[in-house]
Amino acid sequence: MIAQPDGASRAKRRGVGDLVKGGTPIVGLTAYTAPIATLLDPHVDFLLVGDSVGMVVYGFESTLPVTVDMMIAHGAAVMRSSSRALVVVDMPFGSYQESREQAFRTAARILAETGCATVKLEGGAEMAETVRFLTERGVPVMGHVGLMPQSVNAAGGFKVQGRDRQQAERVSADAAAIAGAGAFALVIEGTIEPVARAITEAVPIPTIGIGASPMCDGQILVIDDVLGLFTQFKPRFVRRYAELAPLITAAVEAYAEDVRARRFPGPEHCFGMK
Ligand code: KIV
Questions:
Q1: Is the beta carbon of 52 within 6 A of some atom in ligand 1?
Q2: CB hemisphere CA count around 72 (13 angstroms)
Q3: Which of 8, 28, 52, 58 lies at a 20 to 30 A Cα distance from 64?
Q4: Which of 73, 58, 187, 21 is CA-nearest to residue 120?
Q5: 190 close to ligand 1 (CB < 6 Angstrom)
Q6: What angle do the packed helices 68-80 and 100-114 form, to 10 degrees?
Q7: Where do the H-state alpha helices sit in 162-241?
Q8: Catalytic residues
């Protein structure tokens, strides 16, 4: 806790060391905007400003068009509107794959311009050198292996990874390489339970699953999926904890009817003379 001048205290923001392997499962959710970050902050261990923002907020068909400027704008909004959760900001496609120096420049911009402490990048063994370069220079990195949405074109779609032995060995080797390079945690997306279990047992860092079974040290979901706001499709691994889309439709219909029938605004919404 941090002591406040008036004697009150407020919770300190979590750091990478607060995501503990093997204890109570770690809770993560994505957040992209100020109001959602404010609502989620008290309940999660970390907030991921994911490049999924491109699909759920901007309506792109993949995460590929997302830019560093977009990630910085959303990351800064989430940082301003949270005080407790660790905030992780995704490095978008094309902003880190070219070289480890490019990755460092992007990460440094994200840290400096959002105030967040950590970044996430997708990739396996081929990105290990980059992860090491960043972590040795003071940038904590969360890795992301298995189904990697930024590789949707190479993978031929959003496909579960690790269903055959060759793929399973590759996902496990990717996880080992990223953990060995110094990542502080690892997202495992879209794989089968035996692979997730084997990785979680093998690596010394916490694993965070999404569509990767309960055999991980924690879980993350996309907030718009959890709230039933993203209605284009529902991945099998999503549990909806609310259905907000019909509530929004009903509210907007009621507002439109009131305006058209001159029931809104009412006298209580009008300003009077001084
Ligand atoms: O961008 C994102 O939301 C993610 C999660 C799916 C882990 O990377």
A1: yes
A2: 12
A3: 28
A4: 187
A5: no
A6: 30
A7: 165-180, 193-202, 223-226
A8: 189
| Residues paired with residue 188 on neighbouring β-strands, in sequence order | 145, 209
Where does the pLDDT of residue 233 fall: very low under 50, low under 70, confident under 90, or very high at 90 and above? Answer: confident
Q: Which two tokens stand for residue 182?
A: 């110094």
CA-proximal residue: ligand 1, atom 5 (nearest): 50
Query: Which atom of ligand 1 sits closest to the CA of residue 63?
Result: 1
- Binding site membership of 50 for ligand 1 (Cβ less than 6 Å): yes
Q: Is 185 exposed, middle or buried (0-12, 13-18, 19+ CB in 10 A)?
A: buried
| Intra-chain end-to-end CA distance of the chain, in Å | 47
Enter the pTM of the model. 0.95
Distance between Cα 187 and ligand 1 center (Å): 8
Is any ligand 1 atom within 6 A of the Cβ of residue 220? yes
pLDDT tens for 33-91 read 999 999 999 999 999 999 999 999 999 999 999 999 999 999 999 999 999 999 999 99
- Give the pLDDT confidence score for residue 10 in this predicted structure: 58
Determine the atom of ligand 1 nearest the C-alpha atom of 28. Answer: 7
For the CA of 50, the closest atom of ligand 1 is 1
